[in-house]
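Q: Hi! First time doing this. I have a protein sequence and I read that you can turn it into a structure. Is that right? Here it is:
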Amino acid sequence: MDTGRFRLPAGAMDWAIAVSVAALLMGTGLSGQHPAGERELLGAVLLAAGGLALVARRRAPIAVLAVTGLCAVGYEAAGFEVLAVSYLVAVYVAVRAGHRGLTVAVSVSLLIVLPLTALVFRDGPAGEAFAQARNVLEIAWLIAAFAAGEALRQAERRADEAERTREETARRRADEERLYIARELHDSLTHQISIIKVQSEVAVHIARRRGEQVPEALLAIQTAGREATRELRATLEALRDDDTSPPQSLEHVPELVQRARSMGLDATLTIEGHRHDVPAAVGRTAYRIVQEALTNTARHACATTAAVRIEYRPDALAVQVDDDGKATPDDAPVPGLGLLGMRERITVLGGRLRAQPRPEHGFTVQAELPVERAS
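A: Yes, that's right. Below is the predicted 3D structure, encoded as structure tokens:
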């Protein structure tokens, strides 16, 4: 049976738990011995408030811990002897969120305040007051809630570590496979293509020295050999790039722009926003985007200018490369290996990519890479 389709949304589940706890507290409090009049109304309101406060436990666990503790003190002062179930739930949630020290401090304070409240607002011997306070918050239940929260927190932490270990293992295997492919390509293809390139260039050179007309087929072989050599070299460099040392990142983008200028492009670089540290993977991906875009512009776009813009946003890094090449809105972008590799890098990071002709003419590459500032 597929239980996933009957699963309640998180918000609905929070409200269901909060309302259930509030109903439990009010039912227990009003069914037992309790004061009458205004104190009864005040105690009922505090019982309900303590339960309903749990609806915000995911977003503000410490605030919920404080509110449920104050509600427990309040209905204890009003004359209700009801176990502080809502506070126990708040302890569990706060410890699970990692606030162990603060939870212990608040709980110890509450264990001291509750007996004092009973002594002040209750009539009778001190022993009875302490017994009534113990009924509101029993140490055994408090320890159990704390232990349950800590156990689940440790389990989630171990699960996260296991997931990270699996990702690292998969990444290492991918790197090893990439290097293996690079070695195979180098050993098998590079040598053969080099022979074709050298032989064709020698044939063209000899024909020209003799004053003979060079066949078009031979010139095509020479051109194809040069292009295949360049493409294979670029492919091998990409395959051997295991992102270990030395990593290329955002600080190396000006070198790419300068290199593009040396290739005849009027390239510019604009950096906007407040600069802040970004994860290494984001920096490397941004560098590769600019590198691939400028390389394509210089080789294929017949462009004279290229504009690189990097924008630091609070939660993202935006990269845009525009050129004034021959592309028009009627031209469909050809998904070459460079564009596919760029899209794969961005998708792994959860980002978005747009690569298309500009409205007037030329081509634009726009990427948005999410940034977790805590990383």
